[in-house]
From TrEMBL:
Residues 265-299 form a coiled coil. Keywords: Coiled coil, Metal-binding, Zinc, Zinc-finger. It comes from Poecilia formosa. Gene3D superfamilies: 4.10.830.40, Classic Zinc Finger, Zinc/RING finger domain, C3HC4 (zinc finger). This is FinTRIM family, member 67. GO terms for cellular component: cytoplasm. GO terms for molecular function: zinc ion binding. Residues 433-454 are annotated as: Disordered.
Length: 454
């Protein structure tokens, strides 16, 4: 706008928040102006902080400034809008010229202007200037204007050069009125506009059905994401709890190992102490017997009868030996029965652990999110409501069911049928689930026919 020698630009009156010409402009303390509603909504977002910032210079204010209408700026903006509208109503020499992809005006001479509307009656396209008669003259009131199109010739019957205003449902094509009396006589025909409205209604139903399916799938996706999140959280909790349980079990096994070691040491100390005590007693008795034997030997070599008889009076009888306890004098005496008991405990513990692991593995395998579906079940088909080519061809839309694969490692012959992630232990399982003892355990059972110690 140029008025009074001053050139004003439209951008000078734009609000920096909504990027449009200001409405009810107000000025904040830093001097910048905005639409009243724009700055109010902008500061409402920072109301909980208690600090209000200018969107342009970022100057902060606290408390919230009171906004007052800028009367002078309001008058200037109103005059700018009025002057802009007046300038827009005046024809300009610089017309909007057509570019390569634009529809050209059929009336313009020389450099063509860009067409804004096409007339189905005139079969021509017009720019803003040459379109005015269709709005102002009564002779063009019944003409039908549509958006500018380059395909106007496609709306003309190539045989009769008439407007295609009828739709033949039998042949699924648009025809003119003269075609009704010729090759399309007796066919199912309706007005093209009526058929268009009918198909649009069907498309609306298809769109609504599609939206319902989208909502259903989105809900399924949300439920699936929630299930995945819940399962992951539960898996972490189960792993931590199982670690704690197995850690406690390992601690108890270590405690029992320590107790067995101390028990063996205590029994060794007790047995050796009793044997040493008995050995001391036997050594003392041997010493007494040897002393008595020496006295008897000395007495037997005395030749004087009187001295011999006097010495016999002082000779003591042989000391009585204490009752000898039952001794286990086996030279290969050892803790072999203890080792046998420990081996039995190991075998029993392995059997219990293996059976418990089978139960745990089955329970873990049963935790799934996607259940296997029956291959015979399929999604319902969505028949196309269009009665045209899709109906004639029997077209139908089917929702593809997801292909669900079994979890990896379950159906494959892994090294261990119980756990594909670990190598088999000292026990294997037959296909029928019975335990097969190893050769070492069979030899051990043949060596010990008696019942297992408790």
């Amino acid at each position: 706008m140029a008025q009074g020698g001053v050139v004003l630009d439209k951008d000078q009156f734009n609000c920096s928040i909504c990027l449009d010409v200001m409405k009810n402009p107000v000025t904040i303390p830093c001097g910048h102006s905005y639409c009243s509603d724009c700055i109010q909504n902008y500061w409402d977002q920072d109301d909980f902080l208690g600090v209000f910032v200018c969107p342009q210079c970022r100057q902060s204010f606290s408390p919230r400034p009171v906004l007052a209408r800028n009367t002078m700026l309001t008058d200037v903006v109103e005059k700018f809008k009025t002057t802009t509208l007046q300038a827009a109503s005046v024809p300009r020499d610089n017309r909007c010229l057509a570019k390569a992809d634009d529809v050209e005006c059929d009336v313009c001479t020389g450099r063509k202007s860009k067409a804004v509307k096409s007339c189905l009656v005139c079969l021509a396209s017009y720019c803003d200037v040459h379109l005015q008669p269709h709005y102002e003259s009564a002779a063009f009131k019944k003409h039908k204007l549509v958006s500018a199109s380059k395909r106007l010739q496609e709306t003309i019957c190539p045989q009769h050069d008439k407007l295609l205003e009828v739709y033949c449902r039998t042949d699924s094509r648009c025809i003119c009125y003269l075609c009704l009396t010729d090759e399309h006589k007796g066919h199912d025909t309706v007005l093209a506009e009526a058929e268009t409205q009918h198909i649009k209604m069907q498309l609306g139903d298809m769109r609504q059905s599609s939206q319902l399916k989208i909502q259903q799938r989105e809900k399924e996706a949300q439920d699936l994401r929630q299930a995945v999140f819940s399962l992951a959280r539960s898996a972490r909790a189960a792993a931590e709890e199982s670690d704690a349980i197995f850690t406690e079990l390992i601690r108890q096994i270590e405690l029992k190992r320590f107790e067995v070691r101390e028990l063996i040491k205590e029994q060794e100390k007790t047995a050796i102490g009793e044997a040493e005590q008995l050995l001391d007693q036997i050594q003392k008795e041997i010493a007494e017997l040897k002393k008595n034997e020496a006295e008897l030997d000395l007495l037997s070599h005395t030749d004087d009868p009187v001295q011999f008889l006097q010495s016999c009076q002082s000779v003591r009888a042989s000391p009585a030996l204490s009752a000898s306890p039952l001794l286990n004098t086996n030279p290969s005496l050892s803790f072999s029965p203890v080792m046998t008991a420990v081996s039995d405990f190991k075998v029993l513990l392995q059997e219990v652990c293996q059976g418990g692991f089978v139960s745990i593995y089955e329970k873990v395998k049963d935790v799934t999110i996607v259940m296997t579906q029956n291959p015979e079940s399929s999604e319902s088909q969505c028949d196309s409501p269009l009665a045209g080519e899709a109906g004639a061809a029997g077209g139908a839309v089917q929702m593809e069911s997801p292909i669900i694969l079994p979890p990896p490692g379950l159906d494959q012959p892994a090294v261990s049928p119980l756990n594909p992630f670990f190598t088999p232990g000292p026990f294997a399982f037959s296909p029928f689930g019975s335990k097969l003892a190893t050769g070492s355990r069979q030899r051990h059972l043949q060596r010990r026919p008696h019942s297992r110690r408790r």
